[in-house]
Structure formats: C-alpha cells, structure tokens
Amino acid sequence: MLIAAAAAHAEDTLIRLNTFPTARSLPFFVGVEKGIFRKHGIQLEFEFTESSKAQREGLAGGKFEVVHSAVDNALAMIEVAKVDVVIVSGGDGGTNEFIVGKNINSFTDLRGKALVVDAPNTAYALMGKKILLQQGLKEGADYRINAVGAGPLRLKAMLEGGDNAAAIMNLPFSAQAVEAGMKSLGRAVDMVGPYQAGGAFVLRSWAKAHPETLERYLAGYIESLRWVLDKSHRAEAIALLMDKRQLSRSLAERSYDLMIEPGFGFNPDAKLSVEGFNNVLKLRQEVEGGPVPDPARYLDLSYYDRALKRVSQ
C-alpha cells in the first residue's frame, strides 16, 4: 500500500520510507497531513510491508531509502545478510503483548502448538522464543514456529485458529485480538525487560552520501512525533487513526492511549533507549547464540543529534 506524498515544493527531496501497517505509523500520517516533513524540505512517500523479509530485501536493493521497523531487523541484515546498514534513531518500545488463542489459558497450554511470527529469526519472534524459554518451552521440542508475516497476517492466522496458538502482537492487532475473544498473557517488556523495538535504519553508504537529507527526514519525524505525544491533539490523532488505519473509535482510542505510555509506546523525540537496545542485543545472543556484540557497531546517532538541534532551534 503506497501512501502518496504531500504536494512537494520544487526544492523538496523525495524520501521513500517502508514501515509496518501498525498504529505506530501515526507520526507519518501526521507529518504528511500537517506538512511537517515538507517544512523540513522532505517529500515523504511511504508504503507498508507484508513482512520483514521483503522489507530487508527492499532496503538492500534500493527500493526505498529509509526503513522504520524493529531495529533487530537491522541487526539481521548486518549479521546474517552481510548488508551494511546503520541504525540512526530510536522510535518506540513496540507496544508488544503475548497474545494467545481462545482456548489457551496458560503457557503450558501451548505445548504442541505453533507460535505465529513474522520471520523466524528476528525481532518479535526472538522475543516470543525468549518468553517461552522462560516458561520452560523450547522451540522444536515443545512448540513449532509458523512464519506468516506482518501484524495483519499474524492476526489472520490467529483468527483461523488450529495450531496457531500464540503470537507477539502490537497495536492495533493486539487490541483487535482481545476484542475477538483472545487474551493477553502479559506485556513483553514486563517479561523480557526494556526493549528498543522500532527505529529508523538506512544503508550506511546512503547516509554518508546524503547526510543533510537524512537529518531533515529525522527532524520531520521528531517534530511529527512531538505532535502525536501532545495530549491536546488526542481527539485529532484518534480521528486520523480511524481514517487512515480504518479503526473503530474504541480501537483508535485504546491504541493512542497506549502508544503515548512511557516505556511501552513511543520514545519521546524518537530517542534511542540504550538500555532497551542493549537488551535487544542480549536477547539475540541468548536465543540465536554467539557473544554479545558491541552496540557501537550498529549505531550512528550523529545524524539524529544534528536533527534534534534542527527542531530545537
């Protein structure tokens, strides 16, 4: 699904963004609708992905300049695909919950069932595996993985039922699942600790070649996020969610209120949580194996720091 960019000025720079179709896309809608990206000289055009695999391959192939997604996908690109990408900002804590089917009442009930994931070796799949390990359940021996793709596809698989018994879900899909009779066994951050979920990452070569463009994009995102987190905009933000994400009022209200909750939803000013990012690295090491890597290898926050100065002037 391609979201048309706002009418551009002749001097605007086109940025093609790829992200997931969650409620956390609200700042992008705001930034386009309110002309915030355009104010920073950015003509933003963004599309939703069906899976992190397609997203990672698209970034590597030059289909878009910026990805806003779970930062663990950037780690997978670097470590597994050997693509030189760099994380340039934080974004959010994910709003993830461990959702289970209607006939599941405890983690024990998941034996012999399937954990529904996007991709089997990144981000929220690793989070789900870690939570199940904490409950004494091991992949392959006690449950299997069913990789289906992004949030809408995970929700669809869970609604279909069968062996699809659990999934890490975020807003609005977690709320939709609960409305459909499923249940949450808890928030992921309460079970695995602080977690840097969403963030922006780009090809390192592109960032080096277009530093000012990247700074202006990040400035637009930071300013759009500030608008979202301003509670005086709650009614307008809810209306945007209802319109752009086709949510009922109750789902839009719940999504907005949880997304602005500190530590669970958006990071103020899209600041990267050092503690949360270190936990992402630790989680990958615990589930996938190998030593805990150096965070500096994956980060370059200099673009973010300069972008923050742009919006603070």
How large is the share of residues in beta strands?
A: 15-25%
The CATH homologous superfamily of the largest domain: Periplasmic binding protein-like II
Please name the CATH topology of the largest domain: D-Maltodextrin-Binding Protein, domain 2
Helix/strand/pairing category: alpha/beta
For the report, how would you describe the main beta sheet? Answer: 6 strands, mixed
Radius of gyration: 19 Å
Mean pLDDT score? 93
CATH architecture of the largest domain: 3-Layer(aba) Sandwich
Task: List the strand order in the largest sheet.
Answer: 1-3-2-4-11-5
Low-confidence segments: none
> Based on CA inertia axes, which overall geometry fits?
globular
Taken in chain order, the helices and strands follow as EEHHEHEHEEEHEHEHEHEHHHHHH
Helical residues, percent: 40-55%
**Count the helices. How many?**
14
Total beta strands? 11
- CATH domain class name of the largest domain: Alpha Beta
N-end to C-end Cα span: 35 Å
The domain count comes to: 2
Please provide a written account of the structure.
The chain is of the alpha/beta class and 313 residues long. The protein has two domains: 2-94 and 196-312, 3-Layer(aba) Sandwich (D-Maltodextrin-Binding Protein, domain 2); 97-192, D-Maltodextrin-Binding Protein, domain 2 (3-Layer(aba) Sandwich). The protein is 43% helix and 19% strand. The chain has a six-stranded mixed sheet, with helices on both faces. Strands 8-7-9-6-10 form a five-stranded mixed sheet, with helices on both faces. α1 (26-33) crosses α10 (211-229).
